[in-house]
Specification:
The chain has one domain: Spore Coat Polysaccharide Biosynthesis Protein SpsA, Chain A (Alpha-Beta Complex), CATH 3.90.550.10. With about 240 residues, it is an alpha/beta fold. Strands 1, 2, 3, 4, 5, 6, 7, 8 and 9 form a nine-stranded mixed β-sheet that branches. About 30% of the residues lie in helices and about 20% in strands. The chain is globular and about 45 Å long. The chain has helices spanning about 35-40, 55-65, 80-90, 110-115, 175-185, 190-195, 200-205, 225-235; strands at about 5-10, 50-55, 70, 95-100, 125-130, 145, 150-155, 165-175, 210-215.
């Protein structure tokens, strides 16, 4: 019987977010924002270990307070991908799942879906068809279009012309550990810099990203104060057993 791949999930978390500084430590729900993300990730069945990767002692202390394992990384790393690569560099694993630290509504099943795709590709991600028309033009919501084989053609903060449904890109990535190490060394590319989207480095360097499309709603990441206020309202309105 084939050995099941060892999969480590990494949640990159930094304090100095441009639009919402200190957002991993926002706690109007009584829990840190990064704690909400961590609690969803640990529910994923294919994940064997979960790390919060940060260069900030405030985030590290908060993460340890709710029982998370912390990987301290250099403050000089340019992006979350590099932070993930540094966090797992000395860890024996086959695959790595990068879950953005501002995705408190991420579904554990989606994490498992991204992990399952890595048996046939070197990088994976997830998108959903649930993108309201008004969100299709929101630059805080990243859109993606696919080719006929389910690989990404392009990601953008702008609306992408498409004859099919508008797809909302969700904030997680899967990599083989080997490809993650290569990706972390790739320099920024013109489109990745223009769009401020790391995944465009992959496409511009001739690699492919397999995308799982799911028909389930997901509000997307917390990018602005309004996003966080909406999340808090959803959290307070949840059923008592949630």
């Amino acid at each position: 019987m084939a050995r099941r791949p060892r999969v480590v999930a990494v949640i990159p978390a930094r304090f100095a977010a441009v639009r919402l500084p200190g957002k991993p430590l926002l706690n109007e729900t009584g829990k840190y924002l990064v704690q909400h993300v961590w609690e969803r990730v640990v529910e994923a069945r294919r994940i064997s270990r979960v790390l919060i990767a940060t260069d900030d002692e405030r985030i590290a202390r908060a993460a340890k307070s709710f029982g998370a394992e912390v990987a301290m990384t250099s403050p000089n790393l340019p992006n979350g991908t590099s932070r993930c690569a540094a966090a797992v560099k000395n860890i024996a694993c086959d695959h790595v799942i990068n879950v953005q630290g501002d995705e408190p509504d991420i579904q554990p099943a989606l994490i498992d879906k991204a992990a399952s795709l890595l048996s046939t590709c070197e990088m994976s991600t997830v998108a959903t068809t649930f993108l309201p028309p008004e969100e299709a033009v929101n630059p805080a919501r990243v859109k993606v279009v696919l080719d006929h084989d389910g690989y990404a053609l392009y990601f953008s903060r702008a609306r992408i012309p498409s004859t099919g449904p508008a797809l909302l890109h969700l904030g997680l990535y899967g990599y083989t550990k080997r490809f993650l190490a290569r990706l972390a060394k790739m320099p920024a590319t013109p489109l990745s810099e223009q769009e401020k989207l790391e995944q465009l480095r992959v496409l511009e360097n001739g690699h492919r990203i397999r995308v799982a499309v799911v028909d389930s709603p997901c509000p997307g990441g917390i990018d602005t104060p309004a996003d966080y206020a909406a999340f808090v309202a959803r959290w307070r309105g949840r059923p008592a057993t949630a």
